[in-house]
């Protein structure tokens, strides 16, 4: 099962474009956009996969989709998975990333452990990727930058609301079956984690639980929401019972 969307047919000069590959547990998505304007998407393709057939499906896509075999100015590969570990840089040692990751996460067969360094946030993100998928993609794109979605979210969220709010704030990215929560005091990261959520009630429970754990104020601190959810209006309405300042990131 797949769907694709051509938004701009003029993608002949891909050397000026960025290819972004998003690896999820049950889907691969590919987005092509101008390197200086992420909002102007030229091409989008999403393909449903299963963990057991991911590498087979990936190879098939590269043989069928011509745009994947072009040259791009920049290529980014993003892993979307709740299995990651956040480590302060002062405790980080690249020689021990696998031990640290496996201590916090269940060990998976044929998994390669990688890490991203966020200097501005004084944090390292340790995450896993299927070894076969990694080897195939890096053979196709040796220059590609590989990161965890959590890395991208922390980098982005650390700038959200900074200008108008110098105190604590929570930023949440909602997905169909999970959500990422990041908490900051100005640009300093206080908390980052992901939670599986089967329904809105689960999202509300985990969000309020973290809000209490980091000792946020219901009246003065701010909550920023982004992402996909079946009924955002109802979600916000329910949260308004507990948190005064809620903003939607478009």
From TrEMBL:
Protein name as annotated: DUF3822 family protein
Instruction: Read off the Pfam families from this record.
Output: DUF3822 (PF12864)
* InterPro entries in alphabetical order: DUF3822 (IPR024213)
């Amino acid at each position: 099962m797949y769907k694709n969307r051509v938004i701009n047919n003029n993608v002949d000069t891909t050397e000026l474009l960025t290819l972004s590959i998003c690896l999820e547990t049950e889907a691969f998505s590919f987005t092509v956009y101008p390197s200086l304007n992420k909002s102007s998407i030229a091409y989008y393709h999403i393909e449903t996969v299963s963990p057991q057939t991911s590498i087979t499906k990936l190879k098939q896509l590269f043989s069928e989709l011509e745009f994947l075999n072009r040259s791009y100015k920049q290529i980014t590969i993003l892993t979307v998975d709740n299995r990651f570990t956040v480590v302060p840089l002062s405790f980080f040692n690249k020689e021990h990333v696998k031990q640290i990751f496996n201590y916090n996460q269940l060990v998976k067969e044929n998994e390669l452990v990688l890490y991203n360094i966020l200097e501005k946030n004084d944090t390292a993100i340790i995450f896993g990727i299927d070894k076969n998928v990694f080897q195939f993609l890096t053979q196709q794109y040796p220059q590609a930058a590989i990161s965890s979605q959590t890395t991208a979210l922390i980098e982005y969220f650390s700038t959200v609301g900074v200008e108008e709010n110098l105190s604590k704030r929570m930023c949440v990215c909602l997905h169909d079956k999970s959500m990422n929560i990041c908490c900051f005091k100005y640009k300093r990261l206080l908390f980052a984690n992901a939670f599986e959520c089967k329904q809105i009630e689960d999202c509300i429970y985990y969000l309020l639980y973290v809000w209490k754990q980091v000792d946020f104020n219901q009246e003065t601190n701010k909550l920023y929401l982004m992402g996909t959810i079946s009924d955002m209006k109802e979600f916000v309405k329910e949260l308004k019972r507990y948190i005064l300042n809620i903003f939607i990131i478009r």
